[in-house]
Amino acid sequence: MTLKEWFQKHKSLDMRMKLAEKADSTVGYLNQLAYTPKKASVSMCAALYSASVELTPGEVIFPEDERPDIAEVFSTKQQHEEESKAA
């Protein structure tokens, strides 16, 4: 799931503020990432992943989805799927 898709599912400002806070960012910056050509850094992708796992475990922002151009840097999606199967 991308940040934009997560925003489409979670439209409340409260949820977006929680995500931004946990990702050490602001809602304004996350809006830029979701709705403009601006791309999240590797560290921001990791922060969004961690924050979304904590807030909405069933709807995770995977770095590989957010930045497919650098997907080889990440292995979170595969690890998450393996952990889900094991649980």
Automatic annotation (TrEMBL):
Top-level taxon in the UniProt lineage: Bacteria
Official protein name in the record: XRE family transcriptional regulator
